[in-house]
Amino acid sequence: MKISLNWLREYVDIDMQPEELGRLLTMSGLELEGLEPSGQSLGGIVVARIISISPHPEADRLSLCQVDTGNGEVQVVCGAPNIFSGALAPFAGAGVSLPSGATISDSKIRGVRSQGMLLAEDEMGLTEDHTGVMILPPNLAPGTPFSSMSSDLKRFELADWVFDLSITPNRPDWTSVLGVAREIAALIGQRLRRPEIIIEEGGSHIAGLASVSIADPVGCPRYAAGVIQGVDIGPSPFWMRRRLFLSGIRSINNIVDVTNYVLLEMGQPLHAFDYNKLRENRIIVRRAEKGETFTTLDGETRPLNDESLMICDGERPVALAGIMGGLNSEITPETQDVLLESAFFDPVTIRRCSKRLGLSTEASYRFERGVDIEGATTALKRAMSLVYQLAGGSIASGIIDNYPRPYTPPDIRLRIDKINRLLGTSLTKDAVTGYMKALEMDVRDSGEDQLLISPPSFRVDITREADLIEEVARVFGYENIPVTYPSIRPGQVNDAPELALSDQIRQIMSGLGFAEIITYSFISPKSADMLGAEEESPLRKFVPILNPLAIDQSVMRTSLIPGILNTVAVNVAHYEKDLKLFEWGKVFFQMGEDLQPNEKLLLTAVITGLAQKKSWHCDDRAVDFYDIKGVLEALLAALGLKDVTFKREKDFNSYDPEVSAGVYCKGSALGRVGRVSSNVLEAHGLEKINAFLFELDIAALLKEIPETRRFQSIARFPAVYRDISLLLNRNIESAGVVDIIKEKGSDLIESVEIFDLYEDIKSDRPEKSLAFRISYRSKDRTLDGAEVNSLHETIIDEIKLKTGGRLREG
Amino acid sequence: MKEQLLELEKKALSDLKAINDATELEQFRVAYLGKKGLITSVMKRLGELPPDERPEFGKLANQVKANLSRLLEDVREDLLSRAAGQKSFLDVTLPGRIPAYGHLHPLTLVINEVCRILSRMGFKVVKGPNVELDYYNFEALNIPRDHPARDMQDTFYISDNVVLRTHTSPIQIRVMETQKPPVSIIAPGKVYRRDSDVSHTPMFHQVEGLLVDRHVTFGDLKGTLTGFLNEMFGRETRLRFRPSFFPFTEPSAEVDIRCVICGGKGCRTCSNTGWLEILGSGMVDPAVYGFVDYDAEVYSGFAFGMGIERLAMLKYGIDDIQLFYRNGMRFLRQF
Ligand SMILES: [Zn+2]
């Protein structure tokens, strides 16, 4: 909320710099978000008198003015419609800079010399008015610096500061100038001055003019109204327009401006009806009927339902209660008689209606937070006195105040001990009593250690002891509460099970040369197509977001691949083609409408481009399947997994069916590894890139990681090595041969290494040669050569038998 | 003849071992493997053998020759490298064979640091769902459906009752619902708000903290957070606690640190206030205890939450929040 410092000063004496005041407010919970000077760079602008006006020879809309600047006479070309000879107006001569930054020069306008400029209010940043030059009061001397007028004519108050305050939703009483002034008064120990209300009732009695009935006392607990007849509708005076401007409210006319002014001043939203448009001169507050529509002031026709609270006359709705008035009863230049409304509407009712219509106004903002129900008639009277002051007319005697169940303040018990136990302070009852009184609370003694507190009606946020303790802390000052260090007792809660693993995996992956990325959890619904997912694929079990920011962020991801490939694309665009990336994150699968999805943790890694770049010691080498597989094997080994197997797999979405495999541990699936299929790469704009991926399911992985590692005693007996060089059919997998070796050799096989692979692609024989080195070792004895040789022979025979392979000659 | 050949090989091997320099090596090569060398001359006598023995002898001779050639090359290399150790120039400025090393995301680094500091104090690290029930994200945190406090956070909805969590606070409820005090937890994680501009991303990270036990005071809150921020930003970091509003804490406090960029003089980062908002915190509101069935007369506690992106930006001097989610290598490589 934006508030003028000069306006605040009307209610409380403030003797400090604006920055200091800002700090004070921030430290009391009213956070200063911005502080802007206004009307402070008007140096060089002087009061000038228009001596004579003649038409511009070349332009119908322009006039030539002879102007007395107090420092000689000058000629000025002016286009304003409101000038007259003898008028006083602000003048900027050549060389003067305006707040907008523009500098005035002695120039020619349509061929005629213009030695300066007569200024409109907006050109000086004072209001948004640009209907004509600013006409000043007649008793000023030409040449008087314009900026010094504020002291002469108090209400001009040109030099000002605008405080932009962030108001938390619990403090509706701060949504007004008076509310903020009240806080300042309490903080600096000054008295609060209240706005002047002078009512000269001269008209007929209100009872004969209007009536109010409330059909929905829940939605509208209080409705007050007053009538002023015979008003003159016109523009508001400068001081009012300026204050509205500084608070960001547009000036409309004197009546509407008064309602907005009082709203800002006292926090009570008001509405002005054209009295003569209210049929039967009645006000009825009721719920709308289903199917009813209503055209609000802004010209929009809005559908209503039985949740909409309406202000109606004898026949039809005339206002959307607490939100916006109707076009059918608005104040127009022809309006003669005005009915002013000052009501209290139920916060929830107003909020629901405002949300449903997507219509939020200064009024609804305050009603949904809660205005001061007791303040309704004071604000009404204040508005009536201002209307009378600005637009004349006669005030009907008396007001209507339909208030069936008057407010009774709550009595809240406040225990001094409870305060001190919660805050860690040692405040006395006297001190607490003082703080409460400073906040206009009613304080009664209620036994040895406690007080009975009744908050003022504008403090709608205070209903419980906790709310009072907060106020005590605030007034005592957070900075005065002593710092202590709790001794934290261990509870039943343990660290999340995947926590250690997530640390470990991140460390291993970065150690293996991978950079961690973090991408958005929401992706495009097209991503499933882009990954080549079939109809039934879980990749299509999207959780859609009802109100996404963009279509490509409109569903929760079911795979980390889109994010990782998009990241590859971003980097490739910056000539970073040799990438090793991984992401640890969740994917989400739809479990049914209105239900939480299944959230699954995945680790996904990608490598692209070159595995090795040409350097003084090596040549370029492109990444291939065995690079990514190797990383995965290293990771799983480092995590302590044993019995990891890979199985060829042709049906994985996103993967090249010829170059992909499933990863298993003791039979349970852990994830996938392989080349990203060309279609998928192309869909991500990566047709020129070769990319290899793996994905791991963290929950599955977690089950396979040994909880503790058991030490195996280190073998004391020597190993014996034997090699086998085989010619095998191309399609025979090495793991099958290793399995045969291990099965046949059982616990004498320490390890099997594959040390050579040769495949002549051009050869017409579908063969490859594979060489294995077997390490034989026994835990309990030294193996003798003969025993190993005979075992080795059996193994070779078994391999030949099962694979159809043969030993390679020479 | 076969015996002769094998004898020759034996001699050659022992000669080879005695070689000390390149000259001797060349003499050896000429003597054995040269055009008129010993091996060659034996091989030339192939024709003297009966035809059926020739293939076998040929094969053997070739093997011997190949073997000697290979060993000769080994010795040559050996001599060269020995020579290098003595004479040739080692360029220590040539880049080594650098094994690939990777990078953790700066947000991970900051989350890790935050968790490490708080874990040491005794907080346990817990996790919760990203897609959360309205009840946990709002209702049980004392943010009723029709309350203006809902406007404090722009929410992504999955359905009427399911939202993308707007903060990590729902974890407080999930933990308290199942565990009796004492409870001391922190919860790092992703959160989502319908907000995207120069200084906001629709997804970001928070760490939540909660301590509930007997006799926990606002002073303890100040102490814990002071200790934490001093570890995070240095012992000299000045901080201030100021009143604010969060529906699930009362009293609520915003915690600011002295601007780490300008040291308090005022700059763009701190909007000329000299202070940086770093944490939201407060004493757990009794209304929240009502939802989890804790006795507010027996237990008290505090909660706090912080935005990780902001911490990371301050810590590393990053001026654009979007960089975290663009994942460019030129960014990631710096961490
Ligand atoms: Zn700064």
Task: Provide a compact summary of the structure.
Chain B: It is found in: Cytoplasm. The complex is a heterodimer of chains A (810) and B (335). With 810 residues, chain A is of the alpha+beta class.
- As for the number of domains of chain A, it is 6
Q: Please name the two chains that share the biggest interface, counting residues whose Cβ lies under 8 Å from a Cβ on the partner chain.
A: A-B, 94 and 93 residues
Name of the top-level CATH class of the largest domain in chain A: Alpha Beta
Describe the main β-sheet of chain A briefly. 7 strands, mixed
CATH superfamily of the largest domain in chain B: Bira Bifunctional Protein, Domain 2
Task: Report what the structure shows.
Chain B: Keywords: Aminoacyl-tRNA synthetase, ATP-binding, Cytoplasm, Ligase, Magnesium, Metal-binding, Nucleotide-binding, Protein biosynthesis. Chain B: Its main location: cytoplasm. Chain B: Belongs to the class-II aminoacyl-tRNA synthetase family. Phe-tRNA synthetase alpha subunit type 1 subfamily. Chain B: Tetramer of two alpha and two beta subunits. Chain B: InterPro entries: aa-tRNA-synth_II, aa-tRNA-synth_II/BPL/LPL, Phe-tRNA-synth_IIc_asu, Phe-tRNA_ligase_II_N, Phe_tRNA_ligase_alpha1_bac, Phenylalanyl-tRNA_Synthase, tRNA-bd_arm. Chain A has 20 helices and 42 strands. With about 800 residues, chain A is α+β, with helices and mostly antiparallel strands. Chain A folds into 6 domains: about 1-40 and about 160-190, Phenylalanyl-tRNA Synthetase, Chain B, domain 1 (2-Layer Sandwich), CATH 3.30.56.10; about 45-150, Nucleic acid-binding proteins (OB fold (Dihydrolipoamide Acetyltransferase, E2P), Beta Barrel); about 200-400, Phenylalanyl-trna Synthetase, Chain B, domain 3 (Phenylalanyl-tRNA Synthetase, Chain B, domain 3, 3-Layer(bba) Sandwich), CATH 3.50.40.10; about 410-475, Phenylalanyl-tRNA Synthetase, Chain B, domain 1; about 495-705, BirA Bifunctional Protein, domain 2 (2-Layer Sandwich), CATH 3.30.930; about 720-805, Ferrodoxin-fold anticodon-binding domain (Alpha-Beta Plaits, 2-Layer Sandwich), CATH 3.30.70.380. In chain A, β25 (about 440-445) and β26 form a beta hairpin. In chain A, α6 runs antiparallel to α9 (about 375-390) and α19 (about 735-745) crosses α20 (about 785-805). Chain A is elongated. Chain A starts with a strand and ends with a strand. Chain B has about 325 residues and is of the alpha+beta class. Chain B folds into 2 domains: about 1-85; about 105-330, BirA Bifunctional Protein, domain 2 (2-Layer Sandwich). Chain B has helices at about 1-15, 20-35, 40-45, 55-85, 105-120, 135, 170-180, 220-235, 285-290, 310-315, 325, 330, and strands at about 125, 130-135, 160-165, 185-190, 205-215, 240-245, 250-260, 275-285, 300-305. In chain B, the strands form 2 sheets. Chain B has a 7-stranded mixed sheet with strand order 1-4-5-9-8-7-6, sandwiched between helices. In chain B, strands 2-3 form a two-stranded antiparallel sheet. Chain B is elongated, with a radius of gyration of 38 Å. The interface between A and B is large, with 94 and 93 residues. Bound molecules: zinc ion. Zinc ion binds near residues 259, 261, 262 and 269 of chain B. Zinc ion (ZN) binds next to loops of chain B.
